[in-house]
Structure formats: C-alpha cells, structure tokens
Amino acid sequence: MNRISIALLTTVFAIGLPAIASAEGPHVAPVKAYVADNVDGWLDDPVVIEAVKAQNAAHAGITQADIDAMDGKWREETGASSKPMIDEVLTNELSAFLKERKEESGGLISEVFVMDNKGLNVGQSDVTSDYWQGDEAKFEKSFGAGADAVFVDEIEEDESSQTLQSQVSKTVVDPQSGEAIGAVTVGVNVDNL
C-alpha cells in the first residue's frame, strides 16, 4: 500500500468513525431520560395493563387476514365522516388515561398509543393513520425485542401536531408476571424537550 492509499484510508476512517459513534443521534439520551422519568411510572397502571390483557384475550384467535381487514377499515375511517371503529378506541378508558398523560406533559408528549401483543391499537391520545403497528419498527423493536426493549426512532416532523418529534417505543410488561404483553409508543416533542 502506498502513502496516498494509507492517507486516504486514514482520512476515511477519521471522518467515518465519529459518524458511526453518533449514529443514534444526540436526541436519544435526553428522550430516553424523559421517558424513564415521566412515562415509565404509569406504564404499569392497572388501566394500561388490564386494557392490554383484555384485548390480547379478545384477539387471541385472530388471523393475519382479520388484522389486515381491521387495519383497512381503520384507514378508510380516517378520511370518513363516520368513524365507529376509531371512535370506539378513542373513547375507551385507556384512551382517556393516555389523553390525560399527554395533557399533563405540558407539550412534551405529542402523541401516545398503546398496542396489544399483535401490534393493534388498544388506546391512544390521538388518531393514528393505521390500526396495526405490528409490521413497523416501533413494534418490532420494542415488543418483538423482549421485556426490556426501548427503541428511539429518528426525529421527524409529526404531520398531525406540526412539531419535530422522536417516537420512543417500549415493551409493556405485566408487573405481576414479568411477561411482555404489548407496547407503547410515545411521541416526544424534541423542540420542547
């Protein structure tokens, strides 16, 4: 290897290594800290745990075709004047609980939704664009990764709230059994954080 090749490789590594070391982004640590301090405490609330367990039981026998049909109906309703499926979820006890947590955050939480063990919405503070999150990283890298999993996504503009947010997804764990039963995604407003 000649001196030019060595110098070029040295430059590439010098430039590339800091990018690799900070690949997660500077928002990850503060977002994780915010969720640990302000969200973790209510994830084992009976309202959350009982709602997720009830939906897991109700959906125990559904197929992928059933999931696709429910997701399709939800997507259709997002643009319709009549929204019976969406309204049923948005008015349940868990959704009311999540809306209160969002309000209490003083603008730091832009959205929050809880999913069952199939990735289907159980409760939410705001309408999501789809009902099934099971094929998305927010579910696969939380519930799919086990009981202690935390996934912090990249910063994106949230269309519904017009803010820069990062979604943090965590596995919801039954505090009695330690079993992973679902997941939660919290949109953290990084502008306000």
Structure description:
With 193 residues, the protein is an alpha+beta fold. Helices cover 44% and strands 21% of the residues. The protein has helices at 3-21, 28-38, 40-43, 46-58, 64-78, 84-90, 93-104, 137-140, and strands spanning 109-115, 121-124, 150-158, 163-173, 180-189. Strands 2-1-5-4-3 form a 5-stranded antiparallel beta sheet. The protein is globular, with a radius of gyration of 20 Å. The chain starts with a helix and ends with a strand. The model is unreliable at 1-23 (pLDDT under 50).
What is the general shape? globular
Low-confidence stretches: 1-23
How many β-strands, per DSSP? 5
Main-sheet strand order equals 2-1-5-4-3
Arithmetic mean pLDDT: 87
Distance between the termini: 49 Å
User: Helical proportion?
Assistant: 40-55%
Strand content: 15-25%
How large is the radius of gyration?
20 Å
Order of helices and strands: HHHHHHHEEHEEE
How would you classify the helix and strand content by structural class? Answer: alpha+beta
Largest sheet: 5 strands, antiparallel
Count of helix runs: 8
Question: How would you briefly describe this protein structure?
Answer:
The chain has 193 residues and is of the alpha+beta class.
